[in-house]
Amino acid sequence: MQSTELLHRFFDEGLDDSLEDVLFERMAVDADLRREFLQHQKLHHMIQEDVAGITTPSHVSQQLFIHLGLTPPAKTPPPPGLGRRIGAAMAGLGGALVRGRRYVFTAAISALATAILVVGIFRDGEPLPSVVSDLNRTQEFPQVTPQQDTEAEDGVRDISGTAVPSSMPSSASAAPRDVPRAVTAASRASTSSRSSGAPSSATQSAGTTHAALTPFAARSSADDGDAARNQAVMRRSGIPAMRTLADASRVREDDEAHALRAIIARATPVPLPEASSDRPWHFFRPGPRTNLLSNLVFELRKLYGQSYPSVDLPHNSHTLFENMAISTVYKVTEHHAFGFEYGRENFGREFVTAGAPAFAPPDPSMQELYTPPTPAMAETVRENRMLDVFGAVWKLSMPEYGMFRFVYPYMRTFVGASIVGPISKVRVGLEMYPSNFSMLNVGLEGGLLRYSVDEATYYTSKLNFTVGVAIGF
Amino acid sequence: MPEDYSRYTDEQLFAAFKQSGKEKDAAFRELFSRYERKVYVFCLRLSGNPDDANDIFQETFTRFYRQTLKEDERVSNILAYLLTSARNVFLNTRRNKVYWSPFEDEHIADHVPMYERKELLTMISSALELLDVPYREAFILRFYQGLSYKEIAEITGDSVSSLKVRVMRAKDQVRTILQPYIADLSR
After folding, report:
1. pTM of structure
2. pLDDT of B170 over the 60 cut
3. Is there a single domain that holds both residue A330 and residue A406?
């Protein structure tokens, strides 16, 4: 049967399941047929709207009844009031929720799981092992005693105990002193918080330390005051005294890395500055993860993958959003982020089902247009449908293993559902921060779909390579 | 207590309509309330303009009310009966009139401006007017009235297979005429 004829019958009298599959398979590979399908669809919508908009003029009815010698009919009742319209809208919403109950349940369970995980991480006195390991890493960094701190600021001695003349002008001492002191205070606070389990002291230094990042970024190596401050910092950190200006940038990078580690050790995300709207967007400024403007991130990603079982059929999709996903993720700590994801992805499926009953054409005159019906029998069905997928996301970042200051490894899990059954996925990859409001990521993802047909359970596994872009507002 | 004709089938309603006096009037009112809108839609889309549709509509129901019915005459599908009558009235009045359609082939340009939805729905009416009457009535009865091909065959007197071909061709013609406007509607 020709494709256009199938299309006409689809919209006119309907097709049986086998002919419908044939039509959709042809549409999957024929763009002109898809365009024709949309035209038919739109034309039917126009007809429905046209019919809905036509009413008999009341004066025509009135004139008719008067002409027949009858009492004219009562005028049409006024349109329903606002209350009834709201009730109708609520009823429609309730109907939509019932139809999409699978997604509603998935969203509710995902939200509950997210809330439990968030609460669990911040239980008092019992930080998670990954948080504890972050705190332990502070031992790797040099701990400066208060006396050493004071002596270094005064320029009395360097870290090796050698007397060093003070080269810092007194007027410039306030700002640079705050920076390294804040860094040191953060490391001290992290030590105290590790013992007491209270994040409050770390939080107090959070704003100061975060403000301290700004001077690091804004400093110019040509400034004599900068050189002096760098030398003081190096002494406290145990770095050999700076001899040339070329060392200044390296010292600055080390200071920023040190501050980053202190932030990670606090196990809380970097709080945004008070005047966050004043913070400019830098379109190309690779930097650490804490450079992002926001803890709320929106991601769009594309999937390239293969299902197992491998079903070599074109998927019956005719939209742009194919094998893609969008997600919203909130960074709770520098390691953990939670959110939701919606995507459309094709999964190859192969299962055995009882065949359709023998089909009888509705009209004997149509017999010539149909292939003879086949008797009902068990048959193997192979599909490669594009499925809507929705669920919850947990992302584990590992900033301590960063490379080149803006590339970090991560792991991400997804638990959700599609219209045919539940889906779970795990992804590992790398994320990059080319600017202070965007993130790029690549990853390798493994997924598993579970579905049931005629009381038999089947599984489809899938391996994907993903590429994504995210923006933090 | 007045009779509740809303529960009557078409056959029962027609039987009540054949009576005289108040029973006939009540049955006619019920019959009118059931089918007046469908008949008007058919008249409007078949004739293409409200004035002619009003005349055909009134003439259809007037003929139905005033006809002399035989005692053993029965009608199980009043809607088909009314639509057949409306079709006949339209064909009779059409012989004496020249119909003009706002559509001309050269107006269907490649570059189509943005149209309001209301204008596009008006265009479907105009597109129908470009169809020959047999194709137009088959299209309207199938897609506007939702009648089965068997019911349409009873109204027009044609075979079911020829009606299916006619509906398919009519739809293709309408789709071709409205193609640039349908694409515009999707933006």
Report:
1. 0.41
2. yes
3. yes
